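Field reference: sequence -> structure
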Amino acid sequence: MGVLSVRLDEDLEKQLEYLMKQRKIRDKSAYIRQLLDKSIKDDLISFLCEEVKEKRVSAWKAAEIAQISLRAFQSELSKREITTYTESAFEEDLNFILG
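Structure field:
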């Protein structure tokens, strides 16, 4: 495990201390690791959603990179109103159905 030293400004330190006190958390390092993990995961998913929107990566590949299920990633795309179903895919499906 790598070591990272971070300086917190006074407001952030107060917020952190408040949350730790309210949640009865004693291990500051573990709590910060948990927050950092969540934040990085959220940012990674946001970035990957934009990559899918710009068609630089497929939804399947993005889900794999984010280490979440395709269904969960598609839910994230839906929350952001990003569609992956193109007009040409719709036409192909329609032609298949109509024979």
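Note: Residues 10-98 form one domain.
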